[in-house]
Write a structure and sequence with these properties.
By secondary structure, this protein is mostly helical. Helix content is about 45%, strand content about 5%. Strands 1, 2, 3, 4 and 7 form a 5-stranded mixed β-sheet that branches.
């Protein structure tokens, strides 16, 4: 499970040398010779937009070696807010416009790079942009690895009336009123978080907080989904699987998803067995083909693990519901509100896998933000004073969401500035559509470049600066003008149809974690020693340590990942008031109204290692 995915995907490794390009060219040539003839695309691209020049067969794939964010940002300056990429053909003339094109291999892609372009597409013509594309690795090797009819998640499936049905079922369980009924699960996780942070502070050494935040956010999502307490080992596994799963949904990765000719060569090499590999070995191609096979095997392993724990929890939930267990849960609420048998086992798994790891992006954002704040004591102090202005010397209520405006602003600016979900979930045109006079046919890949949109100078002034005040005192993105709160503050959770349905829970959890962290502790950056480095979660983040600047691109694990995972960051915690912290851990947390609600009597799992369960649970 600890296999480094970037080693398995040639493009995820950013194609650092010309040798790999030679390998690709050779395998393409071999495939052409074996197949006899290959039909190439017509001279005319389907989407008549400007865009970067591409190479035959592979389009712009290898031009993205500097990483998605940098490459697309550069092309945005040349071609405007929406362009076509990954094309075979050279554009007639580079044109500065709000629309342009990109294409990869045999698949054209329209890239959206400005807030205005989002409005013209995902929002104003949402029906045309509400579908999803399918990819070989994600939908084939991962989603359907165990069963050809196995479900993909709701958010990664082509649009259909069934998808609308599923979204309505989930939406009913993610409303503000409904989420309040799950607060007792969140309260225990917040209590556990403060305990973990307190132990880290007592150690006196800098530690990475990835485990603290991810197991809190993912733990809340999983426990409210199934309506039971879940032991830390399982939450650790769920978080680990979801982090690695998300890395397989990157634009232009793996390369054989976008260049079918490479996939053909890979399959032929696999079918020919050792004889063909004998000839490919001197060229270095046999190991490259093996890397594709290993990536697909790893995807199947991840899917097997995810389906395993989801099946176990769904089965147990049905047993509890049959026994009359009244404990609220998202999935239980869905099962109670529909006719028995109206969902197939695969449909139940579709809902479970969609929601099981929904806290992952919130945890990612918290880790970026905590590392950044550790280098900015003035922001920490301002947040602490703002909390004090509202609550005095009392501890803040983590469920009093957005009560402290500055803490809320820190969370919103962190989402914009770091944009942990860099390229969002790709869309596919569900029907023919015309945007600014440009015809885009049905079935075209559409990617909204969240990172660049969150730095759109028309939407945000000083876009490269971290300024929480842009969200305070009537401001909504600009520091120099006040404006109505219209539209989403940033694109980290999507926009229009198929936007994230769990954004309310993500925002509430983000605020709660921040307000408790900044009230109880001071944060300071420090180098990670050998022992703390060995405990970094997940281990793939331990390939390096983030700079003191915490740069959103330079300090990510891989520049081609769709979910920008931050490198490990050593943070030394100091209790602001050790006596008050100890008192809150002993008794103060009981003031949370939700704490005294009954827990699931079926489950007696521990709260977590080093944290004792109180009798009121």
């Amino acid at each position: 499970m600890e296999m480094e995915i970037s080693k398995l995907f040639p493009l995820a490794s950013v194609i650092p040398s010309s040798t790999t390009s030679t390998y690709v060219a050779v395998i393409l040539l071999i495939s052409c010779l074996l197949l006899g003839s290959i039909s190439l695309p017509s001279d005319s691209a389907r989407v008549k937009l400007p865009g970067p020049s591409g190479l035959p067969l592979v389009g712009n794939l290898f031009q993205m070696r500097a990483g998605h964010a940098r490459s697309l940002a550069h092309w945005t300056k040349l071609y405007g807010g929406m362009f076509r990429c990954f094309s075979y053909r050279f554009p007639r003339e580079p044109v500065l416009t709000s629309i342009a094109r990109l294409s990869s291999g045999e698949r054209e892609a329209v890239i959206i790079n400005t807030y205005a372009a989002v409005n013209k597409t995902l929002i104003q013509q949402g029906a045309a942009f509400q579908s999803r594309p399918e990819f070989k690795l994600w939908h084939g090797e991962f989603s359907r690895a165990l069963d050809p009819d196995a479900p993909t998640t709701i958010g990664t499936t082509k649009f259909s009336e069934k998808i609308s049905k599923y979204r309505r079922l989930v939406a009913a369980q993610t409303s503000a009123a409904k989420l309040q009924s799950f607060n007792h699960f969140a309260a225990r996780r917040y209590f556990r978080l403060v305990n973990l942070l307190s132990e880290s502070a007592k150690s006196g050494v800098a530690q990475d907080l990835g485990f603290h935040f991810w197991t809190t956010t993912v733990g809340i999502s999983a426990e409210i989904l199934w309506g039971r307490r879940i032991e830390d080992d399982t939450i650790h596994l769920i978080a680990d699987v979801n982090i690695k799963v998300f890395r397989q949904r990157s634009l232009a990765t793996p390369v054989h998803d976008y260049v079918p000719l490479i996939a053909v060569g890979e399959r032929l090499a696999g079918a020919a067995g050792s004889s063909l590999r004998f000839f490919l070995r001197p060229l270095g191609l046999s190991s490259w083909i093996d890397s594709i096979h290993n990536a697909e095997a790893h995807a199947k392993e991840l899917r097997d693990t995810e389906i395993g724990y989801c099946k176990m929890f769904v089965k147990e939930l049905h047993e509890r519901l049959d026994a009359g267990d009244p404990m609220p849960s998202q999935l239980g609420g869905i099962f109670r509100n529909i006719k028995e048998g109206s969902l197939t086992p695969n449909e139940e798994l579709r809902l479970a896998t969609t929601l099981a790891g929904s806290g992952m992006s919130g945890g990612t954002g918290l880790i970026w933000l905590a590392a950044f704040l550790a280098g900015h004591p003035e922001m920490q102090q301002k947040a602490f004073r703002a909390i004090e202005d509202v609550y005095g010397r009392e501890a803040p209520d983590p469920f009093d969401t957005d009560r402290v405006e500055y803490v809320k602003a820190l969370g919103m600016e962190g989402g914009r500035y770091f944009t942990s979900v860099r390229l969002g979930f790709p869309r596919e045109t569900h029907e023919d559509v015309t945007v600014d006079g440009v015809f885009i046919p049905k079935g075209v890949l559409v990617v909204y470049n969240s990172y660049q949109i969150n730095r759109d100078p028309e939407r945000y002034n000083f876009p490269e600066e971290f300024i929480p005040e842009r969200w305070m005192d009537g401001h909504y993105g600009h520091t120099d003008i006040k404006q109505p709160k219209v539209g989403v503050p940033h694109l980290n959770h999507g926009a229009g149809r198929r936007a994230c349905m769990g954004v309310l829970n993500v925002n509430q959890t983000l605020y709660a974690n921040l307000v408790l962290l900044l009230h109880f502790f001071k944060l300071e950056r420090g180098p990670l020693g050998d022992a703390p480095l060995a405990t970094v979660f997940p281990k793939l983040r331990a390939v390096g340590e983030a700079s003191l600047e915490v740069h959103p691109i330079n300090d990510q694990v891989s520049v081609c990942d769709p979910q920008a995972l931050p490198l490990a960051a050593g943070i030394k915690l100091t209790a602001r008031d050790a006596e008050a912290l100890s008192s809150w851990i002993d008794e103060g947390h009981r003031e949370l109204d939700q704490w005294d609600l009954p827990t699931n009597p079926v489950d007696a799992s521990p709260v977590g290692e080093g944290v004792e369960a109180t009798t009121t649970l």
